[in-house]
Design a protein that fits this description.
single chain; about 375 residues; mainly beta; Tachylectin-2, Chain A; four-stranded antiparallel sheet; 22 strands; about 45% strand
């Protein structure tokens, strides 16, 4: 009897092992490494809006074109996209009782075009992070002027330090004014992430309506080698509305890695007005690393998981003029008394070139569930 029981147990265990290693089509299951990030459910709670007056001067510069923001050591670093006088500001954002009580600029650093690197590059500065004592800045360059996009390090006096090696497909296939709008520090403190605003020509089309195939690339650069080491696909949403007579565009204007391989992503569409949404995007175990793929149009890949987190239409009535403006920057801010982190977004007023626009500072509370 004991021998029969032993045999039955052995057969049962063999069946379990066999079925766990086989799919229904009898192909082996490939066990992939687990995502080492802790997947979290989050909520963005709108707290406040602060509008900095237009056309204000600070140390001989007009405050405007605010395109990227980062928070470090109690200060905010805000880059301006004025290519004629490329610069970034330091600022204080005072938060009292879950409201922005004041925004004050404390310093400005102008990049001297007499320095060789700055003079040789078209500095359309769109995003900034402060890391390891230096600032890292992303520039879109100018496709029309045959000036390449770039990501570079500068010290806090504005002197050039080094640049990151941009993969060739970004240099050869970018759409004008559709490249590096975004930059975020890796939570591993070992590198940075960036993403293109619009699809590369070899990857897909600009956003269409009601469906689209518009893949973007999230790319990670190692801080030591200054080279790209991984790259993942983010599927841009279709245009929110049927095509208008004037401008029709949707793109990613900034990203923020808030946990390992988990991002807040700003999609900013313009169709007669700004339509802004924040998505949560996740690199999962099954997400394909497409680093090295020269084009995505005919490639097989698994994109990042994506879900809508916040739609500004839900708070439009609480905003100045009941409108959301040209949101281009996102960062963590200070921690609230309840222990939750703040998220701050900023808008680029285009220096009022296209009519009255706002320097909006939008305050959120990040709630993890």
């Amino acid at each position: 009897m004991k021998k029969i029981i032993v045999v039955l147990i052995a057969v049962f265990l063999s069946f379990i092992i066999f079925t766990s290693c086989e799919k229904e089509d009898n192909k082996p299951v490939i066990i992939e490494p687990k995502n080492d990030g802790i997947l979290s459910k989050i909520e963005l709670k709108f707290l406040d809006e602060f509008v900095y007056p237009a056309n204000q001067m600070f140390q001989g510069t007009k405050v405007g074109g605010l395109s990227g923001i980062d928070y470090a050591n109690g200060s905010y670093y805000i880059v301006s996209d004025d290519f004629k006088k490329p610069r970034y500001y330091k600022a204080n954002i005072d938060i009292q009782n879950n409201k922005i009580s004041n925004v004050s600029f404390t310093d400005v650093v102008v990049f001297d075009k007499n320095q060789e690197y700055y003079g040789a590059n078209f500095l359309d500065l769109e995003s900034i992070v402060f890391q390891n004592g230096n600032v890292v800045i992303a520039s879109e360059g100018s496709v029309y002027s045959n000036k390449k996009p770039s990501i570079f390090n500068s010290n806090t006096q504005g002197d050039y330090v080094s640049e990151y090696a941009i993969p060739a497909h970004f240099l050869n296939s970018s759409r004008h004014n559709g490249i590096f709008e975004s930059l975020t520090k890796g939570v591993d403190a070992q590198g940075i992430w960036s993403a293109n605003e619009l699809p590369l020509k070899v990857d897909g089309t600009p956003a269409m309506y009601p469906t689209t195939h518009s893949p973007l690339r999230f790319i990670y650069y190692d801080n030591q080698s200054k080279k790209a080491t991984k790259e993942y696909v983010y599927e841009l949403s279709p245009l929110p509305l049927p095509k208008q007579k004037s401008s029709n565009m949707n793109g990613v204007s900034d990203i923020l890695e808030y946990k390992k391989n988990q991002f807040l992503v700003i999609e900013r569409a313009f169709q007669g007005r700004n339509i802004v949404k924040i998505f949560k995007a996740t690199i999962e175990d099954k997400t394909t690393n497409v680093l090295g793929l020269k084009e995505l149009k005919n490639a097989d890949y698994v994109p990042m998981k994506k879900e809508l987190l916040f739609d500004f239409e839900t708070v439009k009535a609480q905003l100045t003029g009941q409108k959301i403006d040209n949101i281009e920057g996102i960062t963590f801010g200070e921690t609230l008394p309840n222990g939750n982190k703040t998220i701050i977004l900023i808008s680029d007023d285009n220096f009022q070139k296209f009519g009255s626009q706002l320097n909006q500072f939008i305050l959120f509370e990040l709630i993890e569930k």
